[in-house]
Hints:
Blueprint: H1 3-24, H2 31-54, H3 62-84, H4 89-97
Amino acid sequence: MSTLDSLTAGAQVGTLLPLFTAVVQRPAWSAEVKKIVAVVLALIAGVITVAASGGWQQFQHGSLTFVTIAAVLTVSQSTYDLLWKPSRIAPVIERATTPSTGETVE
Length: 106
């Protein structure tokens, strides 16, 4: 796997990751908690991307592993801020996947 392949795989995963992250996020969480969750999920997705694209032996190549994980993290944060949040798609997913508390407002 080349550096370009690593960047491409990371960018592809990172582009869609905010939509999956929105399923986990909750609207009531603070911005700090949401950011921590997003970063942790991006790191996990980066590790999975490395393993899926190059197999477990790919981790022997530190620079390619770093490039892939960094690409997932960078692209996921960028696409969330530039695409998914302004389009209101990610916030809608957050609200739709948040379990209701069963309380009614009178």
